[in-house]
Specification:
The longest helix is centred in the C-terminal third of the chain and has 51 residues. The protein is mostly helical.
Length: 112
């Protein structure tokens, strides 16, 4: 029984230290931007050649990815409303076609 308690204690201390020391140092969103700006400034001060267009392209790609994920989330959230409006428009168009097909020689403004 004593060995089991010691083993559980060791496991708990290990997990606690892992989450406290490794998990606690999570990266924040603005740290990436700060790191990139720092790198660009450092390269300019050192006089190293740097492709600024590539850096900008990579940042724009990251922003496009972020916003595309947000867009899919919003799209999935509003999908029932979107599908309802599309089905209502389809029903109206089909009703109009059916009404026009029932009319003989006489055609009203909608069907002519």
């Amino acid at each position: 029984m004593k060995k089991i308690l010691v083993a559980i204690s060791v496991i708990m201390i290990s997990l606690f230290s892992f989450f406290f020391f490794l998990g606690y140092n999570s990266v924040k969103a603005d740290e990436k931007t700060t790191a990139i700006i720092g790198h660009v400034i450092t390269q300019e001060i050192q006089g190293n050649e740097m492709d600024h267009a590539e850096v900008m392209s990579n940042e724009l790609t990251a922003l496009m990815h972020k916003y595309s994920i947000e867009m899919t989330t919003v799209l999935l959230q509003y999908m029932p409303s979107i599908l309802d409006s599309i089905s209502a428009q389809l029903r109206q168009e089909l009703d109009k076609q059916y009404k026009c097909s029932l009319q003989g020689d006489y055609k009203n403004k909608e069907c002519s």
